Amino acid sequence: MNAKAEDPSIWDDPQEAQKLMRERQQLDDGINGLKRLEAQLSDNIELIEMGEEEGDQAIVADAEAALKELRAEVTRQQIESLLSGEADGNDTYLEVHSGAGGTESQDWANMLLRMYTRWAEKHGMKVELLEIHDGEEAGIKSATMLVKGHNAYGWLKTESGVHRLVRISPYDSQARRHTSFSSIWTYPVIDDSIVVDINESDCRIDTYRSSGAGGQHVNTTDSAVRITHNPTGIVVQCQQERSQHKNRAKAWDMLRARLYEAELKKREEAANQEAASKTDIGWGHQIRSYVLQPYQLVKDLRTGTESTNPQGVLDGDLDEFMEAALAQRVYGGSADVADID
């Protein structure tokens, strides 16, 4: 690969050259990261041995603490190695849809949008809100955001499905406990090197006025665009830009990405299960439950991973759940990250 990268003729095809340089950088980062971990492991083992010989428990304790931190980093590197799918390294679209339940469900959808925004920001990723439909009283009916960052789709792809919330509703005057459902759907951004043929006669294009925050031009022109792909029933919408032309172009990109993601799911022989989780937002299809009352617990129903800190999870602390789901996806069964050799 180094020989190819150093060949001046590679820049005859700039797109291919950039792809090669990205691959080389990722390999360099992986190799250098492994070397750094090996050096830190060796250094801390030596410190422990030295501390034990000299009877200095402070040195031993510091080195042991460093090894625990190192173990967490090794676990993360192991998970990163699982992100080897065809589109795992790509940016991703993430859609949120409220389920039945009116205001309560719409508020839950808004909480999920905030949760994934916080997760992305904690990982140094950039988030762009492409479209949002506000609820009548509070929350949102739906939203689509674009998450840009290293392995964005790889990390978020296991989040697709129905998410269940149990809490005392702030919208219930009698302070009763409510159960709400909202769904998450992720699909990767694709570049020009991936060709997805779409027959425009198979699509219906609608324009409408944007809703939600967006400045003085919102709701004054039909700049938002919705494209429906009739053969599959896939619907995408974009209202990010003030220009209808720009929103239309982004909507076409989103549709190509959705169709590509559907093909990836077929290759993984999971299309039927994924489609069911998307179309029926309710009991029996949830992947994760968030219980705020009468006790505090977040539990992933696929892997059994749990957290007794729901607020931390809702603030974006999702890595533990994502890592377990990725491990299960690769190794099957109820694989735990700690069991990966």
Descriptive report:
With 341 residues, the protein is α+β, with helices and mostly antiparallel strands. The chain has two domains: 2-82; 88-341, Alpha-Beta Plaits (2-Layer Sandwich), CATH 3.30.70. Helices cover 43% and strands 22% of the residues. It has helices at 2-5, 14-54, 57-82, 103-122, 152-156, 244-267, 271-279, 310-314, 319-331; strands at 92-98, 126-134, 140-148, 161-168, 177-188, 203-208, 224-229, 234-238, 286-291, 297-300, 306-307. The protein has an eight-stranded mixed β-sheet. Strands 6-7-8 form a three-stranded antiparallel β-sheet, with helices on one face. α2 (14-54) runs antiparallel to α3 (57-82).
Q: What's the β-strand tally?
A: 11
CATH topology of the largest domain: Alpha-Beta Plaits
Specify the helix fraction band: 40-55%
Q: What percent of residues are in strands?
A: 15-25%
Note the main attributes of this structure.
alpha+beta, Alpha-Beta Plaits, three-stranded antiparallel beta sheet, protein biosynthesis, PrfB, methylation, cytoplasm, Peptide chain release factor 2
Write the layout of secondary structure elements.
Blueprint: H1 2-5, H2 14-54, H3 57-82, E1 92-98, H4 103-122, E2 126-134, E3 140-148, H5 152-156, E4 161-168, E5 177-188, E6 203-208, E7 224-229, E8 234-238, H6 244-267, H7 271-279, E9 286-291, E10 297-300, E11 306-307, H8 310-314, H9 319-331
Helix pairs in contact: 2-3
InterPro entries: PCRF, Pep_chain_release_fac_I, Pep_chain_release_fac_I_sf, PrfB
Subcellular location: Cytoplasm
Function: Peptide chain release factor 2 directs the termination of translation in response to the peptide chain termination codons UGA and UAA.
